């Protein structure tokens, strides 16, 4: 399987998650506390250094309060021309 850490879809996901966190009025530190993780975990997610799996995505949606389908639509649009994973 090809690496997807720097693909358009991954970059769109990261941007959408950062926007959702900021729109919720949360700092990285506040989000990390809600996740019971270190701030560096959130920083690695948001920098694109670390991929986000479906379980993490679901928890992030619940904690931040964003619509999973809306974010997935953004990712889908970003990957429309890319048929590889």
TrEMBL record:
One short Pfam name that applies is: HTH_31
GO terms of molecular function: DNA binding
Which stretches make up the HTH cro/C1-type domain? 17-71
- Keyword annotations of the record: Plasmid
Q: Superkingdom of the source?
A: Bacteria
Q: Does the keyword DNA repair apply?
A: no
InterPro entries reported for this sequence: Cro/C1-type_HTH, Lambda_DNA-bd_dom_sf
Its name, as the record gives it, is Transcriptional regulator
């Amino acid at each position: 399987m090809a690496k997807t850490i720097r693909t358009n879809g991954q970059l769109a996901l990261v941007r959408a998650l950062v926007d959702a966190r900021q729109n919720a009025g949360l700092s990285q530190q506040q989000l990390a506390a809600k996740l019971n993780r270190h701030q560096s975990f959130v920083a690695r997610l948001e920098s694109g250094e670390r991929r986000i799996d479906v379980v993490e995505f679901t928890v992030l949606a619940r904690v931040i309060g964003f619509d999973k389908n809306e974010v997935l639509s953004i990712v889908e649009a970003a990957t429309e021309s890319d048929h590889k994973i």
